[in-house]
Specification:
The complex is a heterotrimer of chains A (284), B (282) and C (277).
Chain A: H1 6-16, H2 18-35, H3 37-40, H4 72-107, H5 110-125, H6 128-139, H7 143-170, H8 173-180, H9 185-221, H10 233-242, H11 249-276
Chain B: E1 6-17, E2 20-32, E3 37-41, H1 48-55, E4 63-72, E5 75-76, H2 82-91, E6 93-96, H3 100-103, H4 110-116, H5 125-138, H6 144-147, H7 157-170, E7 175-179, H8 187-204, E8 207-212, H9 215-221, E9 224-229, E10 232-238, H10 239-244, H11 249-257, H12 276-281
Parallel strand pairs in B: 3-8, 3-9, 6-7, 7-8
Antiparallel strand pairs in B: 1-2, 1-4, 4-5, 9-10
Chain C: H1 3-12, E1 16-27, E2 39-50, E3 54-58, H2 65-72, E4 79-84, E5 87-88, H3 94-101, E6 104-107, H4 121-131, H5 139-149, H6 166-178, E7 184-188, H7 196-213, E8 216-221, E9 233-238, E10 241-247, H8 248-253, H9 258-265, H10 270-276
Parallel strand pairs in C: 3-8, 3-9, 6-7, 7-8
Antiparallel strand pairs in C: 1-2, 1-4, 4-5, 9-10
Helix pairs in contact in C: 4-5, 4-6, 6-7
Classes of the chains: A mainly alpha (284), B alpha/beta (282), C alpha/beta (277).
């Protein structure tokens, strides 16, 4: 029997799970539309056309236009860029950082655990918006600032979960077995603990992606994220909220992609967790 | 003759799995009369656990009864309503598990758990407490009144198993199911617990279904035995008859394998290969 | 240690796979208000296991036998001395301990739980090579060799721990313990959780390996009878102390201590019933 590579096997297993497949399709569509946004968008998202303002869906403007006559569909497509640019790298960085610190805290000596926990608690004790404001004051408003805020506020959450799970695993017999064979800490953490806790955290992180997109929207609203006229789902929602009596289409264009992103990443995250755990793998 | 306490007749249970149907039990017949102690012996995967879960009607979601039935005190178990089932569990049937640590609530004191379990009794709390203390003394737990304030984890393994037996007997069940109750215990304790169980059974007059993989324990306690292998009862009968003159090759192999039975040091211990029966049949 | 004992240990150091002298393990009992004395789990136990010998330690729960094994493997702080292959474990530095750990194999109580759940059997049994940086050109071939040693089919290399039965998982544990070709195996309740029929298989396997590879094996168990045919020497521990030690036949034939007699008498077997009836 030919040995299949682990990656190929995992890919096949995701494809066999209908929800996982759906999640994968949504995520690919999102990422694809973000990458090719300029060529997919039928209009320039910042082009103002006062004659066509606040129209409903038409043959040319599929999702209508806003109060300045800008094409909502194009703004939605371009908005995905901002969303993913902020959400994906910042969540990935927060996850990586949280995992690393959390596992070291959970497995390492007591003093290191205390030190890391103190850091996490300090960071968490700042309200997110306060933290964001102080960052803006220090480094100025930009996408980078939003990302920094996300990393600083999310990493401690992942870190705490990673720490608790590591502590549970630390006393299990297979970890003692590794120690008794003379395995060093990096090996125990990366090869034996990480695969057992990654699944839960990836699911959690994928469910956080839409929350980050919402945070970006909130910060943009406060003038600390994306500056107008750059389109983002958050600014679509904000405008739509103000214009809800005139047209529902802006809110739809802002909310629909956020809902789709949530579902897409959640389904994919759950499928990834099942694939990562041989116990949950379905055998034919 | 009076109604048997437990009558399992021709019971077959399948598990539906992704790989297809798995036959967990095949045409099981088992009868326990009033005041009888019946042992069920078998190794892992023989269907013991499925049988117990069926008797308690706590079967896994993918389990399906494909034939036969179970009657407890003459009533068809599969026809009971949810309410009748609740009344039956605890009042007529009690169970003692292998790991008493996991079957007791760790954050509630022993006294409260033992009072709570008598919720069906129409007596004062004070009386319930006194009954609980008396029962702890019965199962041989020293200083029973003091123990009321303690928590299950504060007891040693042997004491916890005594506590489990005490709680099971508090409801004065007609049938006590003991699921490998001595497997986790040391040999010296195992003997004590088995003897206690036998003594209590005689005084309370309940019937006992004793499930174990340990032949010696079954021999010590039981009147009758059923040997299970791969979902079937391969041999059953009076314990002295079965063990002194085993008819089925699996029973014989099981007896040979017991290291406790070795008189002399042997070079190789006897074992049972996985395809044992197939080999024996051909 | 007195002078005579010291000379003795030097003379015999070459024939010993394991020598434990005056080993003591204690746990501090911290309470908020109580200041009780530490709990002594292992109280000055001494024993030695010769090369190629199977030594069984018998004790019931709470006797300190597991603490003894863990201290011997350097997993618990202890005082006294544990020499494996002539090297001191007690007080060894991290680096020294790593080097010593390449020289013995350890088997754990929980057959499935002691195997890393996300790894395949092949990765699990070749783990010692990677830990100790032993380069093997062909890990798959090494895995096949180890599986063959413990009589498991080759295609088990691709399985995961949860797909194994208790007996199979235990064999995988044996294979892993043998990977670096140690002279000593420490086995914690090797038959725990196994069916009677499989128990025999495992003990037979250990006996075979001991003969074929000249292994020394220290077995810790609560069941005196499972070591009847396999152990060369037996030590009985009770409340942290070694109360009786002797060769197999003398322990079974003429036990000196009452506790040992009680253990022997707690032999639940069919013939006892038939005799009683």
């Amino acid at each position: 029997m030919k040995q299949q590579s682990e990656l190929l096997k995992s890919a096949k297993l995701i494809l066999r799970d209908p929800l996982g497949l759906l999640g994968l399709v949504i995520v690919i569509a999102l990422v694809g539309s973000a990458i090719f946004a300029p060529s997919l968008a039928p209009f320039n998202p910042t082009a103002i056309d006062m004659k066509a303002r606040l129209s409903g869906p038409t043959a040319s403007h599929w999702l209508g236009t806003d109060q300045l006559g800008r094409d909502t569909f194009s703004r939605m497509i371009l908005g995905g860029r901002v969303a993913l640019q902020v959400a994906l790298p910042s969540i990935a960085a927060a996850l990586g950082l949280g995992l690393l610190l959390g596992m070291v805290a959970g497995y390492g000596p007591r003093w290191l655990d205390n030190a890391i926990m103190l850091l996490f608690d300090t960071l968490r004790s700042f309200p997110t918006v306060m933290l964001a404001l102080s960052f803006v004051a220090l480094v100025g408003p930009s996408l980078g600032t939003v990302m920094l805020v996300v990393i600083v506020t999310s990493a401690p959450i992942y870190g705490r979960i990673a720490r608790t799970q590591t502590m549970t695993l630390k006393s299990s017999e297979f970890i003692t077995a590794e120690e008794a064979m003379g395995a060093r800490m990096p090996r125990i953490l990366l090869i034996h603990i990480l695969p057992n806790i990654l699944g839960t955290l990836v699911v959690l992180a994928s469910m956080d992606i839409p929350a980050v997109i919402a945070l970006e929207a909130g910060l943009s609203f406060l003038g600390m994220g994306v500056k107008p006229p750059t389109p983002s789902w958050g600014s679509l929602l904000k405008d739509g909220y103000a214009l809800i009596r005139s047209t529902p289409w802006l809110i739809i264009a802002g909310a629909l992609p956020i809902v789709m992103t949530t579902l897409g990443f959640t389904f994919l995250g759950e499928a990834l967790r099942d694939v990562a755990d041989p116990k949950l793998r379905r055998t034919r | 003759m009076s109604e048997p306490v437990l009558k399992v007749s021709n019971l077959s249970i399948d598990y539906r799995t992704e790989q297809g149907r798995l036959k967990a039990l095949r045409n099981i017949d088992l009868t326990i009369g009033a005041g009888e102690i019946v042992g069920v012996v078998g190794e892992s995967g023989c269907g013991k656990s499925t049988l117990i879960s069926a008797i308690l009607r706590l079967m896994a979601n993918n389990a399906e009864v494909t034939g036969g039935g179970i009657a407890i005190n003459g009533r068809d178990l599969f026809k009971l309503s949810a309410r009748e089932l609740r009344m039956m569990r605890g009042a007529e049937v009690s169970i003692v598990f292998q790991d008493p640590m996991q079957s007791h609530n760790p954050v509630i004191s022993i006294g409260r758990q033992m009072v709570d379990i008598q919720f069906r009794e129409n007596i004062s709390k004070k009386e319930k407490l006194n009954r609980a203390i008396a029962m702890l003394a019965e199962v041989g737990i020293p200083e029973p009144a003091e123990k009321m304030k303690q928590y299950p984890f504060e007891l040693s393994g042997g004491m916890r198993q005594r506590l489990a037996i005490a709680m099971a007997l508090l409801c004065r069940p007609k049938l006590l199911i003991a699921d490998e109750p001595t497997t986790a215990l040391d040999a010296t304790l195992e003997v004590q617990i088995l003897d206690k169980l036998k003594d209590l059974q005689q005084r309370y007059g309940c019937s006992v279904l004793f499930v174990s993989h340990h032949l010696g324990a079954v021999a010590r306690l039981c009147d009758k035995v059923a040997v299970m292998y791969k979902g079937e009862v391969v041999e059953s009968g009076d314990i002295d008859t079965v063990f002194s003159n085993p008819q089925h090759p699996y029973t014989r192999a099981l007896i040979e394998c017991d290291p406790a039975g070795l008189e002399e040091r042997t070079r190789m211990l006897p074992t049972i290969p996985a395809d044992f029966l197939e080999a024996a049949r051909s | 240690m007195n002078i005579a004992a010291a000379t003795f240990s030097q003379d015999h150091a070459g024939d010993e796979a394991l020598r434990i002298s005056n080993l003591r393990v204690s746990y501090s009992r911290k309470g908020l208000l109580t200041n009780s004395s530490p709990l002594v789990a292992v109280d000055s136990i001494s024993l030695s296991v010769a090369k190629g010998e199977i030594y069984a330690i018998i004790g019931e729960s709470g006797s300190g036998k597991t603490s003894l094994l863990r201290a011997a493997a350097g997993l618990l702080p202890a005082s006294g001395s544990v020499r494996i292959d002539g090297r001191e474990v007690v007080g060894a530095s991290k680096g020294e301990l790593r080097a010593i750990r390449a020289r013995f194999g350890l088997m754990f109580q929980d057959p499935v739980g002691s195997l890393s759940p996300r790894l395949t059997v092949q990765s699990i049994i070749t783990e010692p090579f990677r830990i100790h940086g032993v380069s093997k050109k062909d890990m798959a071939a090494e895995a096949r060799r180890l599986l063959k040693l413990v009589s498991l089919p080759e295609d088990f290399a691709g399985r995961y721990p949860h797909q194994l039965s208790g007996g199979q998982a235990r064999r995988v544990g044996v294979a892993r313990a043998l990977a670096l070709e140690p002279a000593l195996i420490l086995a914690d309740e090797p038959t725990a959780g196994l069916d009677v029929s499989v128990q025999g298989e495992l003990l037979n396997l250990l006996r075979d390996l001991q003969e074929k590879l000249g292994l020394a094996i220290l077995i810790i168990t609560h069941n005196l009878h499972v070591v009847r045919h396999i152990a060369d020497r037996i030590g009985i521990v009770y409340k942290g102390r070694m109360i009786e030690e002797g060769d197999n036949d003398s322990i079974f034939g003429s036990p000196a201590e009452d506790y040992t007699k009680l253990l022997l008498a707690s032999n639940l077997h069919l013939k006892n019933r038939v005799a009683r009836a």
